[in-house]
Specification:
Number of domains: 2
Strand order of the largest sheet: 3-2-1-4-5-6
Number of helices: 6
CATH class of the largest domain: Alpha Beta
Radius of gyration: 18 Å
Number of strands: 11
Order of helices and strands: EHEHEHEHEEHEEEEEH
Strand content: 25-35%
CATH topology of the largest domain: Rossmann fold
Helix content: 25-40%
């Protein structure tokens, strides 16, 4: 998928990092030149300019992109960007960040918004679910025990298709907790063979998240840090 993230603040950076790690081609549009330079230094593809200007979005690849995420820190900017993306550039899917819940009613199809989301992780999850672009997704933090929950989606190009859970090479503290198949949860055992479409829920430690990704997609580029 080709995705434009309008707004390179902390939320925009987090969204771009996660979507890029899932194999998408992501371009960030950031109005502040210093911030744009910082993001470029971290490995992101960045266009410096105002995302509320059609020509800037076109420079970022809007005429051929699949999704635009408007996630600046100002609701009025996100609405204008969404309207331009949908009405003028005909981008297929537009997702917008809501900063002030009192403004949520404005984020509708009238402004070109397909979905309005508040939290960064919800933004990422919605985009990936809607576009089918997810490979691995950080679902939850279990701070009390120092673990996280990661969802690994088995696609046709995954290394694990046809392999059993016991042959994945998971090590402590990794635990395959369940497999979602056909909308139903299946208890994991070492002999369960993975097929395309499976979603594997893995409990692991934060420092092992990249290693889990590599088990399923060893050739995928690492997420920029």
């Amino acid at each position: 998928m080709k995705i434009i993230v309008a707004g390179g603040g902390s939320v925009g950076e987090g969204v771009a990092r996660t979507l890029g790690a899932s194999g998408n081609a992501v371009v960030i549009v950031e109005v502040d030149r210093k911030r744009a330079s910082e993001l470029q230094g971290r490995g992101f593809s960045v266009v410096s300019g105002n995302a509320a200007v059609v020509e800037v979005l076109e420079q970022a690849g809007a005429l051929s992109c699949d999704v635009l995420v408007a996630c600046t820190g100002l609701d009025e900017e996100n609405l204008v960007i969404s309207l331009l993306a949908r009405r003028h550039l005909e981008i297929p899917r537009v997702v917008a960040r809501v900063n002030d819940e009192a403004n949520r009613w404005l984020f509708s199809d009238l402004w070109g918004v397909d979905a309005a989301i508040s939290a960064e992780l919800a933004l990422v999850g919605l985009i990936e679910e809607a576009t089918g672009s997810a490979r691995t997704v950080h679902l939850a933090d279990m701070g009390a025990v120092g673990l996280i929950l990661v969802e690994a989606n088995v696609t046709a190009d995954s290394e694990v298709v046809g392999r059993a859970i016991g042959a994945l090479g998971l090590s402590e503290p990794d635990l395959a907790a369940a497999v979602i198949r056909g909308g139903r949860a299946i208890a994991c055992d070492v002999y369960l063979t993975l097929v395309v479409g499976d979603r594997v829920l893995v409990v692991t430690s934060p420092e092992r998240e990249e290693s889990i990704r590599r088990i399923f997609y060893p050739d995928a580029e690492a997420a920029p840090r």
